[in-house]
């Protein structure tokens, strides 16, 4: 297997990330997709997303798709459920780092920056270990007519996990992909055993491993639906909408 050399500012192998629809479509309230979980798993064994109707956060680990609901509880999703937005890949841990102990999200971020070959590629991230705490929030199922995501996520409750082992999974996306995806880090959490999780706001990792899979190719699948056809995918306040719905600070 090819190994990434940090001194070389290029990934050493090509790796495809597959994406279903666009972040800007989700922001515009396009919450019903046309891809089933079964089809999505055919494009990757690792990833994140959401479900039709914005019914919870999705996290795919080792080919198993988990659905996390608004109260932080998790269950395995069925192959026939559908998703309006997903990013997946077949995760290969080309870069692995033993995390220095007791670091928060903002302290781990520069460590990841220092290990990746360039800001200009995509990265899948997997952090496994023992967490002192993980602060999450989870979207809740919407009813039609759907509101824009900035309104639909106003009431999201945050769920905090303490003294928990588990996995944080997701993607670090270049700024030039803004609107296609969420620029920066977008990660979800699943506690070991699938006992709970959510969209990660912050965490403190007592000890664990950070694994990174560089992405060089993006396969984008746009929904062939009337709703997507009519969506406003380039709003003037795109930055503010992404910040309000995903970063929540
Ligand atoms: Zn999320």
TrEMBL record:
Enzyme class per UniProt: lyase
CDD domains attached to this UniProt entry: acetolactate_decarboxylase (cd17299)
SUPFAM superfamilies membership: AF0104/ALDC/Ptd012-like (SSF117856)
Origin superkingdom: Bacteria
One Gene Ontology MF term: acetolactate decarboxylase activity
InterPro entries assigned to the protein according to its UniProt record, in alphabetical order: Acetolactate_a_deCO2ase
Alphabetized UniProt keyword annotations: Acetoin biosynthesis, Decarboxylase, Lyase
Catalytic reactions of this protein: (2S)-2-acetolactate + H(+) = (R)-acetoin + CO2
GO biological process, one term: acetoin biosynthetic process
Record EC number: 4.1.1.5
UniProt pathway annotation: Polyol metabolism; (R,R)-butane-2,3-diol biosynthesis; (R,R)-butane-2,3-diol from pyruvate: step 2/3
Family: Belongs to the alpha-acetolactate decarboxylase family.
Protein name, entry field: Alpha-acetolactate decarboxylase
């Amino acid at each position: 297997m090819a190994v990434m050399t940090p001194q070389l500012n290029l990934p050493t192998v090509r790796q495809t990330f597959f994406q279903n629809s666009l972040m800007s479509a989700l922001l515009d309230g396009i919450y019903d997709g046309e891809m089933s979980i079964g089809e999505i798993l055919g494009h990757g064994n690792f990833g994140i997303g959401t479900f039709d109707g914005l019914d919870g956060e999705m996290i795919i680990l080792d080919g198993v798709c988990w659905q996390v609901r608004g109260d932080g509880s998790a269950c395995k999703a069925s192959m026939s459920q559908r998703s309006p937005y997903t990013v997946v890949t077949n995760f290969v841990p080309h870069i692995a780092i033993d995390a220095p102990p007791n670091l928060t999200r903002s302290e781990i971020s520069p460590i990841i920056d220092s290990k990746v070959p360039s800001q200009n590629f995509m990265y899948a991230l997997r952090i496994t270990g023992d967490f002192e705490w993980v602060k999450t929030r989870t979207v809740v199922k919407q009813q039609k007519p759907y509101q824009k995501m900035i309104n639909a996520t106003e009431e999201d409750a945050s769920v905090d996990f303490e003294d928990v082992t588990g996995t944080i999974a997701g993607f670090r996306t270049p700024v030039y992909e803004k609107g296609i995806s969420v620029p920066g880090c977008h990660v979800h959490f699943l506690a070991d055993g699938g006992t709970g999780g959510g969209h990660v706001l912050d965490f403190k990792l007592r000890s664990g491993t950070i694994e990174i899979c560089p992405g060089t190719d993006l396969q984008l699948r746009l929904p062939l639906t009337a709703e997507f056809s009519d969506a406003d995918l380039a709003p003037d306040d795109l930055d503010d909408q992404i910040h309000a719905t995903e970063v929540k600070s």
